[in-house]
Design brief:
Layout: H1 37-43, E1 54-58, H2 60-67, E2 102-108, E3 111-116, H3 120-129, E4 133-137, E5 140-144, E6 151-154, E7 158-162, H4 184-193, E8 198-202, E9 210-221, E10 224-233, H5 236-252, E11 261-265, E12 271-277, H6 293-299
Antiparallel strand pairs: 1-2, 1-8, 2-3, 3-7, 4-5, 6-7, 8-9, 9-10, 10-12, 11-12
Helix pairs in contact: 5-6
Length: 300
């Protein structure tokens, strides 16, 4: 299985994805599953037919609080993974725009939705100066350009965008029951990840054992971060094999992954879960940036 990711959220480094999991007999906060309301709300902002080969959810307000005393430690996981912050130039949203205005974000390569506190007048003025024109689409005021390739809807508390050619804003205004939060694989992954401030999802392009891979970040304080790696797999046999491979990697690479718990939830959509504690010296996101042995074991 080959999974390739380009992540502006971590600069030139690739924050690809990882393992889907589920545990039983949970005894600590990092062991708890259920899916955070923020993550499920974020997934609910995008239609189920979104190009979600790579998707990132970020509770930006939470990570700002966690990283205020040590921003370098959280540098891998602190930025939204959005083409608006890279592909369309730094001036598209205007000189007054700052990333700190974003409180939460869910982004794919083609579309995204942000919640926060925005100066909508300044943003739309910048869009207009960049050649964008305002139009009405099903009662929505949207901004688009013939040659820029992205359509936006802006208010003081939210911003949605899409680069789809046909009916672009449909992907960020899903009908009831048709969002990614209603997709069985994404919901299983979200429930596995638990209460996370960041989650990265990746749909493998090959028809291997893994249906959906995900990586989540949990933190009870700035010094105590836990990485949760989850894989939704095709059947129980694949889940057991992946569990064995991960447990062997934990042992062979000791002490790098000391304290890791690997478990399996069986059923129609089996899930393999690895809960990996970071030390205070280890940077969140390391499992898909530097300490990648667990990911490589899962990738086969």
């Amino acid at each position: 299985m080959r999974i390739s990711v380009t992540r502006p959220a971590i600069g030139a480094l690739a924050l690809a994805t990882v393992l889907l999991t589920a545990v039983t007999g949970c005894s600590s906060e990092s062991d708890a599953e259920g899916g955070s309301s923020g993550l499920l709300t974020g997934l609910g902002a995008l239609a189920g037919d979104a190009d979600a080969k790579q998707l990132t959810f970020l509770d930006a307000a939470a990570v700002r609080e966690l990283s205020k005393d040590d921003p370098e430690r959280f540098a891998f996981v602190s930025r939204p993974s959005s083409p608006l912050l890279s592909s369309y130039g730094p001036g598209l949203l205007g000189k007054e725009f700052e990333e700190s205005q974003i409180d939460s974000a869910v982004d794919t390569a083609e579309a995204g939705h942000w919640e926060g506190s925005f100066d909508s007048d300044a943003i739309t003025a910048s869009l207009k100066s960049n050649g964008y024109k305002k139009s009405d689409k099903d009662g929505q005021e949207v901004w688009s350009s013939d040659d820029k390739g992205v359509t936006l809807e802006v208010s003081d508390d939210s911003l949605s965008y899409s680069s789809r050619d046909s009916d672009p804003m449909a992907v960020v205004s899903p009908e009831d029951g048709s969002s990614l939060a209603d997709d069985s694989d994404f919901r299983s992954a979200a429930e596995c990840l638990g209460d996370v401030y960041r989650a990265d999802f990746n749909r493998p392009s090959s028809s291997g054992a893994v249906r959906l891979a995900s990586a989540g970040q949990q933190a009870s304080s700035s010094a105590k971060n836990t990485e949760v790696l989850c894989f939704v797999v095709k059947d129980d046999a694949a889940a057991e094999k992946l569990r064995t491979d991960l447990e062997q990697t934990v042992k062979s690479d000791a002490p790098k992954f000391d304290g890791t718990k690997v478990s399996v939830r069986k059923g129609d959509r089996p899930v393999v879960r690895a809960v990996v504690p970071d030390t205070a010296e280890q940077r969140p996101g390391r499992l898909v940036v530097s300490d990648m042995a667990l990911w490589m074991a899962a990738a086969g």
